[in-house]
Amino acid sequence: MKKNIFFCLLFLSGMLQAGNTARIENFTGDVKIRRGLDESWQPAHSSLILETFDTILTGEKSRVKLLLADGGQFILGANAILDIADLRRISKRELFLIITSEKIEKLPQRRGGSGFHINNVNVLHGSKKLDTDADGVNPQLELEWRRNRNGGVDLLEQRFYTNAIIKFHKTLKTYIDVKDCGELYFYLGQAFEGLQNQGQALEAYTSSIKSNVADECTGEAAFLRREKAGKAILRLKR
After folding, report:
1. What are the C-alpha distances in Å from 161 to residues 4, 23, 37, 151, 158?
2. How far, in Å, CA of 23 to CA of 68, rounded?
3. Separation in Å, CA 172 to CA 29, 33, 169
4. pLDDT tens-digit profile of 195-235?
5. What CA–CA distance (Å, rounded) separates 37 from 120?
6. How far apart are CA 48 and CA 133, in angstroms?
């Protein structure tokens, strides 16, 4: 068992470090890029080559078209953020390894053991948890969450299902203070459905409803999402 876990994590570590590039073909509005671990943002320009650990950010009413190393393309919409690493084509097997590693990280460590840990690229910039204001979650935290949510939705809508799942998982893990009324779990359900993984889709939709209720969401959007999640659960159980 120990040997299997070691090789699982070793393979995953190598996979995350695999090369990946994208080139900006064109864009409209305010688009910025961040190089590697650099905290500063720079204006984007057409034909710019982006590497694995670079990040791209779009402003309101902005859009950027990326040409990927494998010959495909990806369009990032307005008010969204994405690491170029998030665009690497990920197989179902690799997704399974990533999910398995997340579960392993949650296991209690043995006394005196150091354990393994694989860093999340998104967490290298800033902290996981920001202080909250008296009236609710810090507005900057909500803005960051929204940008990551939008990046994940763009992945989902362009059928990068495995990438979208990882993006939503990272966002849930990073922005734990944001109450989203089950929105990210709902998108996870859609992504797992896209992969025809009914079991995990059911689990995600169920978590979406539970989160919706736990957050005491009463808005129309939250009600419709809860209703859609319920219908999806009934459909998948047939």
Report:
1. 26, 21, 27, 12, 8
2. 7
3. 28, 23, 5
4. 999 999 999 999 999 999 998 998 899 999 999 999 999 99
5. 13
6. 39
